[in-house]
Specification:
Blueprint lengths: L4 E6 L6 E5 L4 E4 L5 H10 L7 E5 L5 H4 L2 H7 L4 E3 L1 H8 L12 E3 L5 E4 L2 E7 L8 E7 L2 E6 L7 H9 L2 E5 L4 H6 L4 H8 L7 H11 L6 E5 L8 H14 L7 E3 L9 E2 L2
Parallel strand pairs: 3-4, 4-5, 5-6, 10-11, 11-12, 12-13
Antiparallel strand pairs: 1-2, 1-14, 2-3, 7-8, 8-9, 9-10
Helix pairs in contact: 8-9
Bound molecules: zinc ion (2 copies).
One zinc ion (ZN) binds next to helix 2.
């Protein structure tokens, strides 16, 4: 009950979905992985769908929202996000079935309390209507998820400095992207301040905001084309080492393979 549990069902441009909770209940973050696959993982860990108390959406891009209506309208899970993210979901032509009864609004920096969790969202820069990170606090421990951001803004830094467990984007290796097959407009988009974080940017951000209570760091939203789990891990681990930082747990989340269920002591 006192420990935060975390599980990734998949992470990256082919689909994102995470579980955060405790031994009794929890929440989904993003809805980009099929319910069939998610339910199979939940079953492995005896987590029942009726104990999923909410789905928190970071932004309206399809890799985060593909199955939002299934979870919301078919399975009756309340779908929380800001007004602008909901507007983005409503106007996303790829999402055929719209949210109605399941739609729930939250605002930046406003705390939502659901049972023992205090949940906060905050804006991060990305090329969409709105994009938010989330912090989940249980007792005195805090898990923070920050994905899809082109630059590390002050509010994100603030949340990283308060996090015990952090899920942070490390999307691409800059050289791989620049020399890769993406068309130049897409390279510009990814590299921009409204695109994604590179391994190098994530490493720098971690060095600058590191603190002793940061017990676990998961790297998320790795590009299949311009990155690899090994490269992301090594780039970031080496930069931390250079600055005399020894992470207790640093782990790159796989794009298509679910992670283990982590239970933080
Ligand atoms: Zn994404
Ligand atoms: Zn995005």
């Amino acid at each position: 009950m006192e420990q935060i549990h975390f599980l990734s069902f998949g992470s990256g441009s082919s689909g994102n979905c995470y579980f955060v909770g405790n031994a009794e209940y929890g929440f989904f973050i993003d809805a980009g992985i099929s319910p069939r696959k998610v339910k199979a993982e939940l079953k492995k860990y005896q987590i029942q769908l009726k104990n999923i108390l909410g789905l928190f959406v970071t932004h309206s891009h399809y890799d985060h929202t593909k199955y939002v209506s299934s979870w919301g309208e078919k399975y009756g899970i309340p779908v929380f996000s800001t007004e602008k993210v909901h507007l983005g979901i409503d106007s996303n032509p790829m999402i055929a079935r719209k949210l109605s009864a399941s739609k729930k609004y939250i605002a930046h920096s406003e705390k939502s309390i659901i049972k023992d969790f205090e949940i906060e969202c905050f804006h991060v820069p990305h090329d969409t209507h709105d994009c938010v990170g989330y912090s989940f606090q249980l007792r005195n421990k805090r898990l923070t998820i920050i994905t899809d951001l082109g630059a590390v803004c002050d509010i994100a830094k603030e949340h990283i400095r308060k996090a015990n467990y952090l899920i942070l984007e490390a999307n691409y290796d800059e050289m791989m992207l620049r020399n890769g097959i993406y068309p130049s407009y897409l390279k510009r988009r990814v590299l921009s301040n409204l695109g994604h974080l590179s391994n190098e940017q994530t490493a720098k951000c971690l060095v600058e905001n590191w603190h002793n209570n940061l017990d676990a760091v998961f790297l998320c939203h790795l590009s299949g084309e311009n990155n690899s789990p090994k490269l992301a891990y090594e780039t970031i681990f080496n930069e931390l080492s250079k600055n005399n930082i020894q992470p207790k747990l640093l782990f790159p989340l796989e794009r298509k393979t679910p992670s283990d269920l982590y239970i933080f002591e």
